[in-house]
Structures are given as structure tokens and as C-alpha cells.
Amino acid sequence: MAQQDYLFYPFLSHDGLSLFFTAVPWPWSGSTVAINGDIFVSTRPSRDDGWGVPSRLPVLSSARNDEGLSFARGDSILYFVRSDPYDPSVTMDPALATSDLWQVEVTPIVDLTGDGIVDSIDVCKLVDRWHTYDTVCDIAPAPLGDGYVDVQDLIVLAEHLFEEFPPAEPAE
Predict the structure, then answer these.
(1) Which class is domain 108-172?
(2) How far, in Å, are 23, 28, 77, 156 from residue 106 at the CA level?
């Protein structure tokens, strides 16, 4: 995050391990382009640890202003606001921009190895990380896991055994 970013709408996950917030570049004054915010998340392994480096949630990033993430414990739906970017050349009042409530369903990534199929190799990977904090294997409960690899994660993985998925493509 840049030192001048304007941060708002903090939301702490039920387990206290994920902090969501909206970041908007600052300053607005003198800007010649539309200003929009994006939703970021910072995580930590336990409540006693410090926060990690924030990262933008790509599924919620758009050319519009995305802010105010919220969800209910055990619900697989994330809720947020998406509005027109604030453009000081159009209006000096950001409250006049149009906005809507949006939702996106979170589905766990159950192909833990990225090889295109959920099989015994994925089960072994989950078991190898049993009773640890591992964000890759912590896939339950929805929407973000509970910070611990345990039987809830095994149950979700078992529901998808032998399903095939397109192999993950390497990042460019």
C-alpha cells in the first residue's frame, strides 16, 4: 500500500485471521483520471501474529469502485458495493455516483495440487498439513476456512473426489 492510500471499510473475518479493507489512491485533488478503490486482504497465521502484506482480491477488482466487503459465517456468498469511479471532473461529490450491491459466490479450490483432478494425491497433501495453518489446504468452512486444516477440510475435499478440473495455467 502506498503511504498516501486512503483505507476504509475494514472488515475482520470471524476467526480474526483475515482483514479486508478498501484502498483508494490519495490525493484526489488535481486528479485527471477517475479514482476507484479496490478490496484488499491481509492475513495472519494466528491472532498473536502480525498482519501480512495486503493483496488485492482479483475476483473483486474492476474498473469501477469496489468497497465494503462483508459475509456471514458459514455462508459462501461475499457481499460488496460496486459503484462508478469517483471522477472529480464530473462531480465534486462522490456520493452522487451510482452504485449497486453485488455478491459473488466463493467456491473452494479443491484441486490442491493443480494437476486437474481431485484424487488421493490431494488427500495426502491435506493430511500432510493436518492441524496446521495452511491457506491452500484450509478450504472449509465457507467462505475462507477457519485457519486450521482439519476434518471440515477433508469433508469438503471428499465431496469432490475424482472430479476433473482444467489444469492451472502458469502466470505470465
Answers:
(1) mainly alpha
(2) 22, 33, 6, 13
